[in-house]
Design a protein that fits this description.
The complex is a heterodimer of chains A (about 375) and B (about 500). Chain A is built from 16 helices and four strands. Chain A is mainly alpha-helical and about 375 residues long. Chain B has a six-stranded mixed sheet, sandwiched between helices. The chains are: A mainly alpha (about 375), B alpha/beta (about 500). The complex binds adenosine-5'-triphosphate (ATP) and magnesium ion.
Chain lengths: ~375, ~500
């Protein structure tokens, strides 16, 4: 019985290992090529901040893609939501909470609208959100009158630029480690409770060593950059990724998304409300886009009419590099996040190397196609 | 000299040895049946023959006319005269019959398709087979039986010398089967060698020169059909004696579990056409109600109309357990304790790329696993129940559903619905493409469920199945009920008369 289990697990974990190895190679190459600048605490902290926007979008996009849909509008919605927040704070002088709320609410409303058109009127998501890509970009241009709105609100800027101190970082680490240990013990105990065998505490705890090590190294590296600690946007991204991971792997909602993407008819006949779940996933995508918009605007201390242009493609590319299938039914949050990190690493490394703009695009595009091509070849063989 | 010889074929999938040294020969003009339980390796052997699994992915030799052939693609095997009709239909629904027949080999000049020639040749081919099908019709608009016949026409357009038919009659009506057999007899005269895979032993004995039995990836034996009896073949397939495949009914009927009245189901394409017209019936706890009828009589539509999974218009009154029930979505139906084992498991039943576990717990997910947060352990335990009781042949619940043999896939779908603990269970063609052994098991399971008080509504095209299992049979003809019989009244003649509308 364990034979098959192993071979399937190794299929999935194998691809994760390969991606981590690819990431390591990219990092080592850039470190070497930049004369040991890439793998410094300072640059890694920057890199993580840079990936946070794409990362947050990729988490939402992954869920949309798994359900068999796509959202091409996130770049434009990001621009629009950021525009609303900046416009309200700077031009209309509302308080920050109101502005944040407005940006998020509008993003969710857009998600609901596009989700409803897709799910209930059966217009393909590709078309609905392609329309959205144009329309919401138009909306932000109209709102900002074609000019840049600066942001001087300190708290707003903090969302994109500031750090939680080193001590807070360690506190977070402590909580995270406690949680990992708790989950390990719970897993071991439930094996026994459900009568599947003896509780294997040592085994489960041993398996926790890798995540615990990861948490410690991560906090340590972030703190090592001038003792600043974890960047707030990175913290937001990690929280989003954890929630996304939980939703996709451990909730009925997540299972329904995979079922709908895998075989919509079978899902419907099994009593799943496909339409409502598609609506939900688009609303979620909207909420995350609003969040990403706040980070983006905060990082740039401004809202511009072309903010977020092509961000949808970064998010989709991250998912696909991470093994998601555009047909639906397949993909993981972990993969999408790794994909986002790979994309951000390429951006960051090539900028450090002063690779010309157009070359960067050509290289990123080629890598995307190559990654999926290799993946397909690998799948066919097995 | 044999037309075809397959020697010591070994084919492995991760964790499964699907073929373990199988040898097989076929003579020109021979009708050679290949039988065996679900998962015995029949389809796999044919996929090896036809290049679906290219040379190098299996061991052993394939010889045609005594020369070793190494096929890397289906195309290469076709060029060598091998034509295969897969268990799963492989026509493109959005193309016409003619386009499908000549897919990839359309008559063309300088790359421009010669449409009039294409349709002319298609017409000739179809007429030659005595098929009354317009080659300009979209395949998607044909019934499944006619699609199957088109598939056969397509295979023949390639001038096959070796024709493989993998369960071609699973979806055919009796008259369509006769048409098919007429065609096959003619091909036999022309010297075409045929490999025929079927779980319907009547057909096998009617047509075969020789029969080869596979079990667990090994050849049990090959013999002239005339020298074998049905029971011998079954025993060889299953590895044990199989007595009467229908269980002895001793159901105790309880209260009315489900009552339907005024059920109308309208066509999706033709808005005012009724596929089911003012149908009413009831089924009691502990009773198996069979619904008989020909293909297209509206049986599946009837079930979907009640289950609220029909995507067109429908209306009806439903009473569950004596109280009126509003059922406007499959979720409503499930919450009223109705389960629906749908036909066509690949399209409607399974998510092929997901595991047995994921599939089996899908319908009852919130009950089995948790309303919002899921629990894999609990799901595994739940899924292991049907896994054992239905004797699903797979390494574990983590096996991908799409890699299972047809019969085991069907059991997974059945398992999915048993896991919602239904009070009322709809079964639509529950044994299509399933071997005798598994059939007997499923029949026993149906009987056991009824005995425990479940109300069961069974739709099947196999008359013996309906008659053998049902306590009561209603017959549908063009959307109307044309007959109702108790177990003792129901004879094949009476039911067929009602089904064809001759009374
Ligand atoms: N692609 C695959 N990957 C893994 N295992 C497979 C694959 N295809 C078939 N198998 C396994 O090989 C065995 C033989 O399957 P096969 O489809 O040949 O059975 P079959 O005799 O045609 O059964 P049925 O009568 O149900 O169609 C089964 O155990 C099946 O699970
Ligand atoms: Mg088969």
């Amino acid at each position: 019985m364990s034979d098959e289990k192993k071979s399937i697990l190794s299929g999935q974990t194998l691809r994760a290992y390969i991606m981590i190895a690819v990431l390591a190679m990219i990092w080592l190459y850039f470190h070497w090529a930049t004369g040991s600048i890439f793998l410094t605490a300072r640059n890694l902290s920057n890199l993580m901040s840079q990936m946070s926007v794409t990362g947050v979008l990729a988490v939402g996009m992954l869920m949309v893609i798994v359900s068999g849909n796509i959202d091409l509008s996130v770049g434009s919605v990001l621009g629009f939501a950021g525009g609303i927040a900046a416009f309200m704070v700077t031009t209309m002088e509302y308080g920050l909470p109101t502005a944040i709320l407005a940006a998020i609410v509008v993003s969710i409303a857009i998600g609901l609208l596009q989700g409803a058109l897709t799910a209930y009127l059966n217009i393909p998501a590709f078309i609905v959100t392609l329309g959205g890509l144009l329309a919401w970009r138009g909306a932000v241009k109209w709102l900002l009158g074609g000019s840049t709105v600066p942001i001087s609100d300190k708290t707003f800027m903090a969302i994109g630029q500031s750090y939680v101190g080193p001590m807070a970082g360690w506190a977070i680490a402590a909580v995270a480690i406690a949680f990992v240990v708790f989950m390990a013990i719970r897993r071991a105990r439930s094996v026994k409770e459900l009568g599947l065998g003896e509780a294997n505490y040592t085994g489960e705890l041993l398996k926790s060593i890798v995540p615990i090590g990861g948490i410690i190294i991560f906090i340590w590296v972030m703190n090592a950059y001038d003792d600043k600690g974890v960047p707030i946007p990175v913290l937001i991204f990690v929280a989003v990724a954890l929630v996304g991971g939980f939703l996709t792997t451990s909730t009925t909602f997540g299972r329904y998304l995979y079922a709908i993407g895998g075989n919509a008819d079978a899902a419907r006949l099994s009593g799943i409300n496909n339409k409502r779940n598609v609506l939900k996933v688009f609303a979620l995508m909207g909420a995350l886009t609003g969040l990403a918009a706040l980070i983006f605007a905060g990082r740039g201390s401004s809202a511009t009419p072309d903010a977020g242009t092509l961000k949808e493609l970064d998010a989709i590319a991250a998912c696909v590099i991470g093994g998601a299938s555009l047909v639906g039914g397949r993909g993981t949050i972990f993969g999408a996040c790794l994909g986002a990190l790979i994309m951000a690493s390429l951006d960051n490394g090539m900028s450090l190397l002063n690779v010309r703009d157009f070359m960067q695009d050509i290289i990123k595009g080629s890598i995307l196609v190559a990654a999926v091509g290799l993946d397909m070849a690998g799948r066919k063989r097995s | 000299m044999s037309l075809l010889e397959m020697k010591d074929i070994v084919k492995e999938f991760p964790g499964v040895r699907a073929l373990d040294g199988v040898s097989f020969t076929l003579e020109a003009g021979e009708f050679h049946s290949l039988v065996g339980e679900n998962g015995a390796g029949k389809s796999t052997l044919m996929k090896v023959l036809s290049g679906v699994y290219p040379v190098g992915t299996y061991e052993g030799d394939i010889l045609i006319d005594d020369t070793v052939r190494t096929f890397r693609t289906i195309r290469e095997s076709e060029n060598a005269g091998v034509s295969i009709i897969f268990q799963e239909l492989s026509l493109v629904k959005e193309l016409t019959v003619g386009e499908n027949i000549f897919l990839g080999q359309a008559p063309a000049k300088f790359g421009v398709i010669d449409w009039s020639r294409l349709y002319h040749e298609a017409t000739v081919l179809l007429q030659d087979l005595h098929l009354d099908i317009d080659p300009r019709v979209l395949v998607g608009n044909l019934g499944i039986g006619q699609q199957q016949l088109v598939e056969i026409a397509k295979a023949l357009s390639k001038n096959a010398r070796i024709l493989v038919l993998d369960e071609p009659t699973a979806a055919l009506t009796e008259s369509e089967v006769e048409t098919l057999f007429g065609i096959l007899r003619k091909l036999k005269e022309r010297g075409v060698g045929m490999i025929y895979i079927s779980h319907k032993l009547d057909e096998v004995f009617k047509m075969s020169d020789r029969i080869t039995v596979l079990r667990d990836g090994k050849t049990v034996g090959t013999q002239a059909a005339a020298d074998m009896t049905r029971d011998q073949v079954i025993a060889a397939m299953v590895g044990r004696e199989v007595g009467d495949i229908f269980p002895k009914p001793d159901h105790k009927f309880g209260d009315t579990a489900l009552e339907i009245s005024g059920l109308d189901v309208y066509s999706i394409d033709v808005p005012d056409k009724k596929l089911v017209d003012n149908v009413g019936f009831s089924v009691r706890r502990g009773e198996v109600l069979g619904i008989a009828g020909l293909m297209g009589a509206g049986r599946s539509e009837l079930l979907s109309g009640i289950f609220a999974s029909w995507q067109g218009r429908y209306s009806r009154k439903i009473t569950v357990g004596g109280t009126p029930a509003t059922i406007s979505s499959p979720a409503d139906a499930i919450s009223h304790g109705i389960g629906f084992v749908t036909e066509d498991r690949k399209r409607f039943g399974l998510i092929l790329e997901q595991t047995i576990l994921d599939n089996m717990t899908l319908a009852g997910l919130q009950k089995i696993s948790g309303r919002f947060v899921t629990d894999r352990m609990r799901e595994t335990i739940a899924a292991n129940g049907p896994m054992k009781s239905l004797r699903i042949k797979a390494n574990s619940t983590m096996t991908i559903a799409g890699t299972l043999s047809g019969g085991n896939q069907q059991k997974v779908v059945l398992g999915k619905w048993l896991l919602i603990n239904p009070k009322i269970l709809f079964l639509d063609e529950p044994t299509r493409g399933i071997d005798v052994g598994a059939k007997q098991e499923i029949y026993a399971e149906i009987n056991r469920l009824a005995k425990e008080g479940m109300a069961i509504v069974l739709v099947s095209s196999e008359l013996p199945e309906v008659l053998g299992l049902s306590d009561r049979v209603i017959v549908l003809h063009e959307g109307h009920i044309t007959g109702e019989f108790t177990r003792s009244e129901a004879t094949p003649e009476k039911v067929m008369a009602a089904a064809t509308g001759n009374q």
